[in-house]
Design a protein that fits this description.
The protein is built from one helix and twelve strands, in the order H-E-E-E-E-E-E-E-E-E-E-E-E. With 188 residues, the chain is mostly beta strands. A hairpin with a 2-residue loop joins strand 6 and strand 7.
Length: 188
């Protein structure tokens, strides 16, 4: 079993040897993924949604890259009280991140993510007028690139309240999102 693990590690290292950040290189990665999201209020629990979009990355140094993305992101939460009611929101998110490459293809990342509300529903009813149109979050995470396929795991800490004047669901919650995406990186 140990030999199998060592062989797998060596093969993985060989495959990722070309997954380096190149200075001055611009790339784009169309991406799809899953959001595990909730609004941080009492009696709310995580719900599963999806997102899709793309990231563009510029290699500043061999260890540092800067990315900017554009994503259509479904978020929200569901009631924990057994009522089964859901809050569903959708945003256009624009994450801007610094990627620090710690090892071949492995990067840690952090930045800022403004979002623009497109839709807000509670229990199937349109409540967009009760929701704030702008959302701001701090994404932190890791990504791993193997053969131009990028696996990305992020946690987004919401900084702004979702609701206007405590209206949506009568709560004052912020978005909290765990994102897992997969993309394919094209060098331009």
């Amino acid at each position: 079993m140990k030999k199998l693990l060592v062989m797998a590690a060596i093969l993985l290292g060989a495959v990722t040897a070309n997954a380096q950040n190149e200075v001055g290189q611009l790339s784009i990665a169309p991406t799809v993924g899953v959001n595990y999201a909730k609004i941080t209020t009492d009696k709310q629990k995580f719900n599963t949604f999806f997102e899709l979009g793309a990231n563009a990355e510029y290699g500043v140094t061999e260890k540092l890259g800067v990315t900017a993305g554009l994503f259509y992101s479904f978020q929200g939460s569901k009631d924990d009280g057994g009522a089964g009611k859901k809050t569903e929101t959708s945003y256009i998110n624009v994450p801007i991140l610094a990627n620090y490459y710690v090892w071949n293809g492995l990067a840690v990342k952090a930045g800022v993510q403004p979002g623009y509300l497109l839709k807000a529903e509670y229990d199937g009813h349109d409540v967009k007028k009760d929701a704030k149109k702008f959302d701001l979050g701090i994404p932190v995470g890791v990504s791993y690139e193997v053969s131009d396929i990028v696996f990305d795991l992020r946690y987004v800490f919401g900084l702004t309240k979702v609701n206007k004047k405590n209206a949506l669901m009568n709560k004052e919650g912020k978005n909290q999102v765990i994102q897992f995406t997969v993309g394919y990186k094209f060098k331009l």
